[in-house]
């Protein structure tokens, strides 16, 4: 059974029992790390704004996590990110939580923003391969990436695709890289799902 607890930092650094106002629901820990880094980039303090960023451990868990969270925080606003191929799971989660989709149309209207393939792909396209390679180098993994590129099964793939596969070969690499890739972004040229999520974070900050 999923146990969710939300506590916020007081000005002294201690936790209080203030109710959460906003949930950002994402698929995995790398997505959560990216969302936390985005909040920092746009000047949104998650604690003072009472924003929880939760990885569901897979999109098939969205409904369960959303229901559990809203059970604990019934007045919370919700938003999140997902991969386009998984939209059905998001619609199912919203339906089970009785969150309407305005006009019965796009789930974007309910605060859930799609990555065309996945968030890593969005970040690589936004940054370009040279910047992503620089991030890989800063993580002391450029030599590993060059060896990966030389493997017969990857040798003839575009560099964008090689980077995408390399970042996903280890969970720890994917989680660490997500934060650093977001930190490398030009805020004027964020990928579309991060533009929309940033707007939600700012709205919560202003509330």
What does this structure look like?
Helices cover 48% and strands 12% of the residues. By secondary structure, the protein is an alpha/beta fold. It has 2 domains: 19-118 and 189-206, Rossmann fold (3-Layer(aba) Sandwich); 121-184, no CATH class. The chain has a 4-stranded parallel sheet with strand order 4-3-5-6, sandwiched between helices. Strands 1-2 form a two-stranded antiparallel sheet. β3, α1 (29-41) and β4 (51-55) form a beta-alpha-beta unit. α2 runs parallel beside α3. It is globular.
Strands, count: 6
Reading off the top of the CATH hierarchy, the class of the largest domain is best stated as: Alpha Beta
The span between the termini is 32 Å
Q: Which strand order does the major sheet show?
A: 4-3-5-6
What is the gyration radius calculated from CA atoms?
A: 18 Å
Task: Work out the count of structural domains.
Answer: 2
- Percent helix, as a range, is 40-55%
Strand content: 5-15%
The low-confidence parts are 1-16
Number of helical segments with 4 or more residues: 9
Which fold name corresponds to the CATH topology of the largest domain? Answer: Rossmann fold
Please state the second-level CATH architecture of the largest domain: 3-Layer(aba) Sandwich
The shape, in one word, is globular
Order of helices and strands: EEEHEHEHEHHHHHH
Mean pLDDT: 91
Strand pairing plus helix content: what structural class? Answer: alpha/beta
- Biggest sheet architecture: 4 strands, parallel
